[in-house]
Design a protein that fits this description.
313 residues, alpha+beta, 8-stranded mixed beta sheet, 7 helices, 30% helix, binds 2,5-anhydro-1,6-di-O-phosphono-D-glucitol, binds manganese (II) ion
Length: 313
Amino acid sequence: MSEPGKTKFQIDLRRHLREQEVDDNLIHLICEIAEASKYIIHSIRTGDLGVAGTSNLYGEQQLALDVLADRILRKRLDHSRVVANMMSEEMDEIIPISPDCDGKYSVAFDPLDGSSLVDVNLAVGTIVSIFEGCDLLQPGNNQVAAMYILYGPRTTLVYSVGNGVHEFGMNNLMEYTLLQENIRIEPSGNLYSPGGQRNKYTPGTEAFVTHLEERGVKLRYSGGFVPDINQVLLKGKGIFFYPHLNDLPKGKLRLLFELNPMAYLIEQAGGAASNGHKRILDLQPEEIHQRAPVFIGCKEDVKLAEEFIAKME
Ligand code: AHG
Ligand code: MN
Ligand code: MN
Ligand code: MN
């Protein structure tokens, strides 16, 4: 994929997208989101760590950074001229930008995932799901692109437009240049990232975790969905799950802007993502803020979780 004269690893995001013959409007959209991430980095480093004094539809207390990151992305998407509709964790409703859908895209995003971890200086991220046209209530299988930006010790960007999943790093000029292409996940792994509280796990999940521990699988959980998934993807092994709990039958994570984009990326790397019974990307959303349980990562480990749940619940 590299261009003459440039070593593969000086390729920037726009060039990498062009080399995959991606639609110009989609290239523009992905690059605008990448640009917005620079302002989010700045807000994380300098912003107010306090509460915004408001709460979102989930009843979560919005942090000033949640609202600021949401505003940065909302403005960028609004001015991009290629967005039809958008929605985010911090918006109650879908925000219409353009009535005509031709050549436009609709975006669901989590502006700052793991925002409650910023004050303890753990890694956080931005997650984005992109559909062609106006409809955001489609199964995740119809996404044309998904990406996340991880604000960790390094700032990295991972994306896919359906031709594999690729990682970029932000260099000292604040450009995203290619780090690795076509990342692959092994069939089974040696780490697990268990969300929720163990004493609220249902029998199937409990038996699955006991099996993993007997197999000597290591526990790695930061509480940030983006770094926890990024670890499974880049180590190429492991499983993350935020399951249905006794008091949270739908689990905690949101389908449109957390599970669909991550499921798309992990499947592009040869992994799997399930709600415990069904492929995440096959779920037909009924409403924009819908939650779902999730088991995501190595294909064989996801299948094993489904088998324990089928046998015991
Ligand atoms: P957000 O900060 O966007 O609201 O998401 C937080 C999510 C996700 O980052 C993580 O996987 C999960 O919350 C962790 O939940 P617990 O704190 O219950 O483990
Ligand atoms: Mn939140
Ligand atoms: Mn989130
Ligand atoms: Mn969030």
